[in-house]
Amino acid sequence: DQVLHIVPGTFQQVQHLQLLCSTLMLDLWKPLLPEDIRPGEDLHIRVPASLVQEVKDSLYQHMISYRVLIPDVQKLVDQSMPRERSSHRQVSGGYVYTEYHPMEEIYQWMTQIQKNNSELVTQHILGKTFENRTMYYLQIGQPSNKTKKIIWMDCGIHAREWISPAFCQWFVKEILQNYKTDPKIRRFLQNLDLYVLPVLNIDGYVYSWKKERLWRKSRSPYGNGTCYGTDLNRNFNSSWGSVGISFNCSSDIFCGSGPESEPETKAVAQFIRSKKSDILCYLTMHSYGQLILTPYGSTTKPPSNSEELMQVGKEAAAALTGKYGTSYKVGSTALILYNNSGSSRDWVHTIGIPLSYTFELRDTGTYGFVLPSSQIQPTCEETM
Amino acid sequence: QDIDDVGHKYHLELELEDVLDKGRPVSCTAEVLYALGSKTSAPDVQVTLQGELRSTEEADQEFYNWIRSLEKELVAENIPDSHGNVPPELEPIHRLAWVASGFLIWQNSTENTKFHLAQVKHVKQVKRSDEDLQFDYVLLLHDMVSQ
């Protein structure tokens, strides 16, 4: 359907338009009634798709000029529909990607994903959490007998940042769904392997669902059980314990009893160490802040490849903004956010992985960690 | 950014947008002075509006009437909820919390803090003998430093 904008010049034209509207029963958007059509005044009519050509021919015959105001009415309608009611709900194979899921469902989801995409996806065990939950990651790519380069992405290192695991799940779905139709993705998965860890801090995530929504750390006890949890993103071996941390176990930025003191950290670090010569890029997803952070957090001294890091980061931010206009800032953590040591992003860079980024997803404080599930789709779409 | 020996003064140009009147931003300028060394006093803030903000009288009245019409004192928790949702009738309570947290944040801000209201943990209306409304809030504030 299209909406046409017409300014009739003469009374004859007005009459013709009135006739057209009444015989074809066209939907007048402006003015309200055909009898209100006047020469020199704006006319907006919605023409059903099947009649568009006929109407345009008739206008041409009567030398009435028009402009197409809205080329596709349905598209506008779909865009403005609340997510639940439109076909854009993003349910793929029964899984609702526009909602937040508890850990049990994420475990099931991983199994399903591997099952449904076994030619591309394999599920692997990374290690175990403090509370003995298994950490799984998904390896996505075309199998090959040569060793492939790797891009690693982990989500949910901080329990309350729910949008982060939601993004990992969305990302996997999106890549797999479009694999057949998108040559770029095909080539990508041909040449590289994607390793996705949907929830790194599983114990913390479970706790944020069951007990305390704004919990951040892991759930290992310290101080004889007087306090719980280490901030896993302060627990890596990069200037560990130096800045932006606390040695007080009740602090939200408690860095643990030593670098890699936590089983979760150890599991990730061990794996990345073993594969480090093949890892091209390390991504870790957080919220909130709308930032793309580069190393380092512990010092303002720039990393050796800071220009490259900034350039890639800026291109990513521009692509992201292109989708919905959401703006992201790019820069080194120490400069843009604050000082911190022991972060996974920094550690990964110090062992030689060139491209290492922390993404802080939506928003900038309005909802903060409790981002409404209605924002899952736009956040994920733009971050793709 | 100005650096005096009194402290650090920031000159800001910003746009204010009323949550209930989006699409009509009002420009304003502000000067924020963080006193040197003083970690116990709030920064000094001077704001000049270049335009007018919409009157909130109608919305205020509506909210006031609604609360007065309730049979029991209002009690609510977790706003927004875990999934980020706020029931429409509780939106004014949420906004009130924003305003209150704004004051607290201002009183506790330094150049190194970046506070946001994370969630209204609990709110309870306090019964009063006069016609004023009183609410007791437990607010969770988040400082970006712990990101």
UniProtKB/TrEMBL annotation, chain A:
Membrane topology according to the record = Lipid-anchor; GPI-anchor
Gene3D superfamilies in the cross-refs: Metallocarboxypeptidase-like, Zn peptidases
Locate the Peptidase M14 domain: which residues?
Answer: 99-384
Q: Which GO terms describe its cellular component?
A: apical plasma membrane; extracellular space; side of membrane
Cofactors needed by this protein, per the record, are:
Zn(2+)
Q: Which InterPro entries match?
A: CARBOXYPEPT_ZN_1, M14A-like_propep, M14A_act_pep, Peptidase_M14
Task: Tell me its family.
Answer: Belongs to the peptidase M14 family.
Q: What is this protein called?
A: Carboxypeptidase O
Where does this protein come from, organism-wise? Leiothrix lutea
Q: What is the lineage of its organism?
A: Eukaryota, Metazoa, Chordata, Craniata, Vertebrata
Automatic annotation (TrEMBL), chain B:
One Gene Ontology cellular component: extracellular space
The domain of life is Eukaryota
An example Gene Ontology molecular-function term: metalloendopeptidase inhibitor activity
Write the record's keywords in alphabetical order, separated by commas: Protease inhibitor, Repeat
Q: Where is the Cystatin LXN-type domain?
A: 1-58, 75-147
Family designation: Belongs to the protease inhibitor I47 (latexin) family.
What is this protein's name?
Answer: LXN protein
Which species?
Leiothrix lutea (Red-billed leiothrix)
Query: What taxonomic ancestry is recorded?
Result: Eukaryota, Metazoa, Chordata, Craniata, Vertebrata
Gene name linked to the record: Lxn
